[in-house]
What we know:
Elements: H1 19-24, E1 35-42, E2 48-49, E3 57-59, H2 63-73, E4 78-84, H3 101-112, E5 117-122, E6 135-137, E7 142-144, H4 145-162, E8 166-169, H5 176-186, E9 193-200, H6 207-213, H7 233-245, E10 249-253, H8 259-268, E11 273-277, H9 279-290, H10 296-310, E12 314-317, H11 320-327
Parallel strand pairs: 1-3, 1-4, 1-12, 4-5, 5-8, 8-9, 9-10, 10-11, 11-12
Antiparallel strand pairs: 2-3, 6-7
Amino acid sequence: MSTFPAYPTSRPRRLRTNQNIRALLQETRLSISDLICPIFVRHDSEKRPVQSMPGQYQHTLQSIVDEVKKVEQLGLKAIMLFGIPEKKDPEGSDNLSPNGIATKAIQIIKKTCPDLLVISDLCLCDYSDHGHCCIIDPANKTYLNEPTLEYLAKAAVIHAQAGADMLAPSGMMDGTVKAIRHRLDETGFTNTSIMCHSSKYASVLYGPFREAAECTIQFGDRKTYQIDPPNAREALKEMHIDIAEGADILMVKPASFYLDIIRQAHDNFETPIAAYQVSGEYSMIHAAADKGWLDLKSTTLESLMAIKRAGAQNIVTYFAKEAAQWIS
Ligand SMILES: [Zn+2]
């Protein structure tokens, strides 16, 4: 640690006297290419607003065309796609179909904007009628790890065949990355990368997302697979394991309540770290701004800056489009 001469020789305020000197010394800079824009898509004739997430929509296979064009025009490099199937069943079978909503959406997006990176969410919860991230034993309602791995491996190949550049498994099943990596390599998709939700916490902040993705769980909770919020070392263990299994990017989710985890991930691993500013974080800022208690733009930009300062290289955020306009 350096030592500094005492006041009055040391006057840190000298370096804050005007905007130009503050800009010169800014340690963290937010750029448009840091941001990843989530997009929800469903079979429908018109896009539907998500009530609990102002400005967010469930897009249709038609409306995503203009949406991804706009995303690309704003300079964003990547989207994260969530499919909402017409029919949900216990096996989440829509996600294994070449005609499923995710497959169709990926194909349309890649045809519209071939260079825009498509990161597709890979989980069962959007597709299953029970809303859990795993296959369920109907007899005793237990969560089945290994059958879920087989499901995810199959879905990974289908998404990759449709044109997904990157897969984002978000279900926190043990062995997920290994199962997906192995199957992708076996089927020739060696360049399809994996952004694993390595440290996904059993957080209250996903509430508004459940409305957007229509994935409210019908029984039980996700605490046997998502990380317990008081734990940090457990998150690092998950990340160690995912790197060993072949994860290309590690994800911490949510972001703002877990900045310490992002920082520890950044300091412990060379693997790039992404963070997901989840629906609850988005909706809280919007709600406070709507009441006039906080300024939307400056609060959003400060929240994104904090996540980047903590060590996230990329941020999945529902503010991506607005932030891209504000940053440029
Ligand atoms: Zn899930």
